[in-house]
Amino acid sequence: MSEAVAGWRRALAVCGGVVLVDQVAKAIVVASLSIDQHVSLGLGFRLANTQNTGLAFGIGGAPDLVLGVTIGALALVLLWFALDPARPGLWLAVGLLAGGALGNLADRVRTDAVTDFIDPPLWPTFNLADVAITLGAVVLVLVSLAPQPEQAVKSRRS
């Protein structure tokens, strides 16, 4: 199997796993807590059922704008991956970003809001899709800064 095909398979597996875990966690929260209800978990953390109709961290935004930004960002990441699917580590970044985006997009399509449930002290409430998006962005930066194998070889020759 080529590295490109393996990259796509890995990215799809990570994406599917993120969507599954995110949607199951949100379903449990929605079934267990009413909207705006919370349960203390200790150390200032709470489990909450918060409906976010805006952008990340509750920043306001028109629903069409939110949907457009989400789809546009996802399309750009997928385009980059399509151009270089064998790039080491890019599959992980794409899988995390796509899975997180699709998890939150599923909420928006279903209920016009995203279910957030992790409520730490001094930080806005978020969900597992947000965690995946954040980790995916970090991995994307690291992958983009890492030298490509052929670049590393060329720089050693110079």
For the biggest β-sheet, the strand order reads 1-2-3
Strand segment count: 3
**Gyration radius over CA:** 18 Å
Structural class from helices and strands? alpha+beta
Describe the model:
The model has no long low-confidence stretch (mean pLDDT 88). The two termini are 33 Å apart. This protein has helices spanning 3-32, 63-83, 90-111, 128-145, 149-157; strands spanning 38-42, 45-52, 114-119. By secondary structure, the protein is of the alpha+beta class. Helices cover 63% and strands 12% of the residues. Helix 2 runs antiparallel to helix 3. It has a 3-stranded antiparallel beta sheet. It has 5 helices and 3 strands, in the order αββααβαα. It has one domain. The longest helix has 30 residues, at 3-32. Strand 1 (38-42) and strand 2 form a beta hairpin.
In terms of topology, how is this protein built?
Elements: H1 3-32, E1 38-42, E2 45-52, H2 63-83, H3 90-111, E3 114-119, H4 128-145, H5 149-157
Antiparallel strand pairs: 1-2, 2-3
Helix pairs in contact: 1-3, 2-3, 3-4
Highlighted features:
158 residues; alpha+beta; 5 helices
